[in-house]
Amino acid sequence: MPIVERKQRTLRKSVSISGIGVFTGQETTLTFHPSLADQGIVFQRTDLLNAPKIIASLDSVYSTPRCTIIGNKKASIQMVEHLLASLRAHEIDNVFIQVSGPEVPILDGSSKDFSQLIEETGIIELSEEKKIFSLQSPIFWSNEQVQIIAIPANEYRLSYTLHYPHCLGIGTQFHTFVLSQEEFVKEIASCRTFSIYEEVVPMMEKGFIKRGGLENAILVKENKVINPEGLRYPNEMARHKILDLIGDLSLIPISFLAHIIAIRSGHTSNNFFAKLLYNQIKMENF
Fold this sequence. Notes:
By secondary structure, the chain is α+β, with helices and mostly antiparallel strands. It has 6 helices and 18 strands. Strands 1, 10, 11, 12, 13, 14 and 18 form a 7-stranded mixed β-sheet that branches. A 5-stranded mixed β-sheet has the order 2-3-9-4-5, with helices on one face. Helix 1 packs across helix 5 and helix 5 crosses helix 6. It is globular and about 55 Å long. The N and C termini lie close together (8 Å).
């Protein structure tokens, strides 16, 4: 049975943020608007004819090439995971997001600016309730060296093991935490995406990444972090993987409690597991 945990939430007022897309190189403005209960998170591509809308849900996942892309027959938007992670951590259930381009801005490669924007804008509770479901039986997904497990818990905990044996500058890292607005801001929101220099340069030369750099990612070259300021946490990369996991799992159209244990997962495996987890919770509760 669902646990009636809290009231649904939305933003207090409209607010905008702008930045550059790391893949497209285009400057994009996001404008967030408060939304009514049960509307969910909806994007609108204002730069396209008839301004098509895209619902943020598992059914809308279009592709997962080094990021998560959602879309439909009319439009798509990529790099949604960092924004979705902040919305989930701050328990924003309903918001209408107008987007002036095909990609959510990378900003500094983390969710820090999105979380700060949400906190400065303010959050209001709606009269309608938000139901949260508990996972009742363990489930797992595995593909070669990638494993994701969910076990029953009375909290939403995420644990991640990162293993890069081919790059000593990353190596093996671990982090675990219980998701809450306060802990997300403290432990996860500021953790940046990362790349190995020798792997990402060929992608930049081919035009797949147009605006990647030290201002929006951790870069590891010859087994050393080359960002002048270094890392924000010793295990910042593992923490960022948790950030991505929160964003990808937020596309599950119900809220849930469970302990998610991920080993070497990425956007593609996160999406496969999200569908498995959603089906399991539906089977147990509906």
